[in-house]
Amino acid sequence: MATAKDAAAKVETLAADAQKAATDQFEKISKSLEDVAAFGQDNMDALMKSSSVAVKAAEELNAEIMSFSKKSVEEAVASAKEMSSIKTVPEFVEKQAAFAKTSLDGYMKQAAKINEMFMAAAKDMAEPMNARAAAAADMVKSYRL
């Protein structure tokens, strides 16, 4: 009888251990799935933030370009009016050269400004995604250990 009781106790112990191991594994899997879902949500949030930054940057760049274009057209019209009243060729060449220099200088300054705006926007757009890439690397490291 003692042997049967011992065997039954061993079976109960093995069953309890198996049940505990299965429960522990299920909890670990559930936690991992929750982590993956949260990670995916964080990725989506980062993508939305990056997209918002891109939209705002595009609006700012567009406004800057439109403002510069308007100013350039106004300056060209004013220069054309001024040149239409010129009586001599040397004076015309002088005014035309001055207008060309002013226009080129303005264009170069504007190109530098647009470039700076674009680079700042690119940095700001990449920031949320870079943070997610770092989080992914950390997650991979944590699963290796």
TrEMBL record:
Species this chain originates from: Pikeienuella piscinae
What range(s) does the Phasin domain occupy?
A: 34-132
User: What InterPro entries does the record tag this protein with?
Assistant: Phasin (IPR018968)
| Name of this protein | Phasin family protein
